[in-house]
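Usage

Read records sequentially. Each one opens with the input sequence:
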Amino acid sequence: MQRNLKVKQTDFDLDVVHECPHTLGTAQGYFMFIETSFPQKPGNKGRLISVVEQPQHGRCLQFWYHMYGRNIGQLNVYMSTNTSGNDTHPLVWSRGANVGNVWRKAQISTEYKDPFYIVFEGVVGNGIEGDISMDDVERLAVSCKEPNNCDFEGDTFCGWENVKNTDKFDWEITSGPSSNAFLSGPLTDHTLGTDDGSYGYIDT
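and closes with the structure output:
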């Protein structure tokens, strides 16, 4: 875990766990997670905020996250160049779905001209099977790779948009068997290979 993070504005405590993180893949490593069982309530939020980050220290924020369970809430990342203490943070990344029992990598551009700070926010879902974890938070000196890639997990188009007014129908995000599965549509997505995985879809 990155060490320059501190807890702020939380409905509950965030925990550092000594189990099987992404870094080592063994019980000797540590990772950060939110516990969603009792006494937590749906919608409760836990936040980690960074120290003020300097633009010259990196151009890409990279971290690994683990979101597994049928009651997954939301993992959000905010960034703001307003370092005056105002708690308004623009949302720059979000996931809100079961993405399988694996660690997944995320990258977010941090190519700002002014100092800024980063806020990680975990939101409790509607049940106890929804723990959210993250590990290996770091800023890279290079630009983020693969900026246009999207796996559609979390019901998001990753910044892609349907073209308005110049076409006849829109792409949708779905999961599980498509309505055309017995003819030509997929039974599962490519990312997870399960009914929980999401993919872009048009019904022709």
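Summary fields computed downstream for this record:
- The two ends are 46 Å apart (CA to CA).
- Residues 12-22, 24-28 have pLDDT under 50 and may be disordered.
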